[in-house]
Specification:
Catalytic activity: D-glucose 6-phosphate + NAD(+) = 6-phospho-D-glucono-1,5-lactone + NADH + H(+)
Distance between the termini: 33 Å
Number of strands: 9
Strand content: 15-25%
EC number: 1.1.1.388
Bound molecules: 1,4-dihydronicotinamide adenine dinucleotide, ligand LXAUTJHC
Function: Catalyzes the NAD-dependent oxidation of glucose 6-phosphate to 6-phosphogluconolactone.
Radius of gyration: 17 Å
GO biological process, one term: pentose-phosphate shunt, oxidative branch
Shape: globular
Helix content: 25-40%
Strand order of the largest sheet: 3-2-1-4-5-6-9
Pathway: Carbohydrate degradation; pentose phosphate pathway
Largest sheet: 7 strands, parallel
Length: 254
């Protein structure tokens, strides 16, 4: 990637994981929501993804986008996800196609498909001997308004890809925690994404050649109900971490 990569939501958890792993590999342009405590080492601007002027300025001169900005709370109320997640993402796509950006990587979520976790399937599906898998070809099935906003973000990508040809990779991110998987939380362990694997899958999404993809962003956990096959095949993602390596240890979640 010769041109800069725009990273929205750069000050958040996923943004920090991406920068931590890929800081030196790309020229970054960061979009922050509020002024940072410390001066970033990269070009940055401050603003809101629902503001067209900010988004146009952010998009100026970039070759690819990793769009993370949004309300990440599974309990987020409709007005917030409608504005921050849906409207903000639409404005980002519109500006990206105006600018002729090649690739758009969208932070989708496990919550876009949360309602597949039915009473009949759980908790068995969170366990290593269960072979239930979602692979990204299934219909979205959100269990909350936040999940609806993420599914909508994926559909926006489908539209902008089909209509304008922009390459789109939706990463249904699992549960990102730093250092170790969540403790006493089988579901979280089954969809754990380590910080290094988070950087890896975003590198793959920036480098691979694809049209439109929906992949699961988790580490190679023994427990899993998301298939990694598409991420491996379409992106060349090769996760190195596994929540099972922490079984039996006591750690405090961050
Ligand atoms: N952390 C996780 O495990 C997962 C995260 N995701 C998605 O990844 C993305 C990043 O999540 P996190 O880093 O965990 O959240 P975070 O809250 O740590 O970071 C999100 C960042 O986006 C910024 N932001 C929010 N609304 C904005 C707006 N309207 N304009 C500009 N900036 C705005 C916030 O200020 C914050 O810095 C979100 O879209 C979230 O839905 C998806 C699945 C799992
Ligand atoms: O999409 C997201 O998912 C993760 C994991 O979901 P949870 O229901 O296990 O908490 C969540 O932590 C994150 O905030 C959210 O953006």
């Amino acid at each position: 990637m010769d041109e800069p990569v725009l990273l929205t939501g750069a000050g958040g958890r996923v943004g920090r994981a991406v920068l931590q792993g890929l800081e030196d590999e790309y020229e970054w342009k960061l979009l922050l929501h509020s002024p940072p405590d410390e001066e970033p080492d990269h070009e940055y601007l401050i603003g809101d993804v629902t503001d067209e002027e900010t988004v146009a300025e952010a998009m100026d001169g970039v070759g690819a986008v990793i769009h993370l900005a949004g309300d990440p709370r599974p309990s987020a109320p409709w007005p917030s996800v409608l504005s921050n997640n849906i409207d903000g993402t639409q404005k980002m796509y519109e500006a990206a196609v105006d600018e002729g950006v090649e690739k758009f990587v969208f932070a989708s979520s496990n919550h876009a498909v949360g309602a597949y976790e039915t009473d009949e399937r759980t908790p068995d599906m969170y366990r290593r001997d269960d072979d239930f898998r979602l692979d990204g070809t299934e219909f979205p099935r959100p269990g909350n308004h936040y999940g609806v906003s993420k599914a909508t973000g994926e559909v926006l990508g489908r539209y902008y890809h089909d209509e304008y040809g922009i390459a789109v990779c939706n990463i249904r991110i699992g549960n990102l925690t730093k250092g170790h998987p969540p403790i006493d939380y089988e579901r979280g362990q089954a969809m754990w994404l380590s910080y290094p694997d988070c950087a890896r899958i975003h590198r793959c999404a920036l480098e691979a050649d694809y049209g439109f993809e929906i992949v699961y962003g988790i580490s190679d956990n023994d427990r899993k109900y998301y298939s990694l096959e598409r991420a491996r095949e379409a992106l060349g993602y090769d996760p190195q971490d596994n929540s099972a390596e922490w079984d039996g240890d006591e750690h405090v979640a961050e």
